[in-house]
Amino acid sequence: LSTQLDPSASWVLHKDVGAGPYSPGKCSNGNDFPDCAGPVIVPDVEVIEGDGETITPPDCDVLPVAGDLLVNELMADPGTGANGNDSNGDGLVDSDDDEFVEIVNVSGSTLLLAGLTMHDATSNSYAFPAVCLAPNQAVVVFGDYQGTGNFPGVITLNGDGLSLNNGGDAVVLKNAAGETLSTMTY
Question: CA–CA separation, 35 vs 58, rounded Å?
Answer without folding.
Answer: 23
